Amino acid sequence: MPKSKAQAIVSRKIVDSAAAIHQTILKRRKPSVKIPIRSLSNVRYTPKAGYFELRGNNKTRTLTVNTVKSFAQTLRMIELSKQLLDTNDMATKREAYYISKNWDVAHFDEQPESDTVMDDIEAMYEVNREQLRFHPAEKGGSVTGKVTVIDRERKSGKPIHIDCSRFGSGAYSIPTSVEALGFETKAKFVLAIETGGAFERLVQEDYWQTANCILIEMGGVPTRACRRFIRRLSEEHKLPVYVFCDCDPYGYTNIYRTLKVGSGSAAHINQYFCVPTARYLGVTVGDIQKYDLPTHALKDIDVKRAQDALKNDPFVKHHKEGQQELEQMIHLGVRAEQQAFAKYGLPFVTDKYLPEKLKHPEKFLP
Fold it and tell me: Between 5-26 and 111-125, two packed helices, what is the crossing angle to 10 degrees?
């Protein structure tokens, strides 16, 4: 396949930055690169933007005696990206780690080291790792329901129409890159589901057919590909997105918040990989009380996560409703799972709970 315009832009950024480093060295100065700080402390949230934005604080990586290895690793990773762009190839994150074993003393000892440098580079160039031609090996998510995905054959480029309602007992798997996909749908909404178990229950009950919707299993914190897939469906087809998670601090502050506004560590690309229009359907503390759901005690890590979010998370701090939800969880000291509705019979979640909740989407958490 021919190289895209986006690839050419990224390649140009790499060439320009390399030229600047080269000129600095020729002037007998210490070369350096500026990298945005990727953390919650360096982001802001406003409903107008709809996602976490960088505040503009950077860290500078300068070539010194103490930083020679990390500086060299950064440049070698940039060089690898340029090679992949020039050859229109790609490498998984794991492959990139093993390629570094040829870099003599600049090699990475463990993959988390190479992943961190890769993340720094994408932040530096304000692109995503797929544009740098690095691909994750993670599963993108599963899809069932009223949507046809339009992909293309790799060699011929011939369109392929994939009806996500015709997978029988299976489901369509979201690929690691979704930019080239097209969509045809007449669904009313997207339901993003935290766990595979809850997703399987809804598929078993043919809920997508009853509710005329698209079911997407996130499998915990959604991958970038999953978030981008949902974002494109929402944006291009004006579909509401409702999120169905366990009632615990992790579900609201990690899974839901990451889908809706992004994360601090990926703030440089949140504008492409979040779904600002998403709303939190449940499970909520109110659902636990209304339906008398079985619960489990919050663990110390759950309480700490909720307290940290109340104190430090810009999204949580902006929304009173979210704060009250977390405070209630801490006060009651309990959590509940999506599958707790099985207490009333396996179809209860699709026959009773979801229809009742969907009558009042205006009451969903922001």
Answer: 100
Q: Is the peptide bond before 349 cis (omega within 30 degrees of 0)?
A: no
Residue 136 reports pLDDT greater than 90: no
Q: 248 near 207, Cβ under 8 Å?
A: no
Q: pLDDT tens for residues 307-359? A: 999 999 999 999 999 999 999 999 999 999 999 999 999 999 999 999 999 99
End-to-end CA distance of the chain: 42
CA atoms of 238 and 290, how far apart (whole Å)? 32
* pTM of the predicted model as reported, rounded to 2 decimal places: 0.87
Q: C-alpha distances in angstroms, 228 versus 81, 152, 342? A: 22, 18, 31
List the beta bridge partners of residue 160. Answer: 151
Contact partners, residue 255, CB within 8 Å, separation at least 6:
194, 218, 220, 221, 222, 243, 245
The confidence score (pLDDT) of residue 135 equals 86
User: Which residues are identified as catalytic?
Assistant: 98
Q: Which of 204, 197, 256, 195 is nearest to 230 (CA)?
A: 256
Residue with tokens 């009223």, as numbered in its chain: 146
Structure token digits, residue 287:
């659902």
In the beta sheet, which residues pair with residue 173?
142
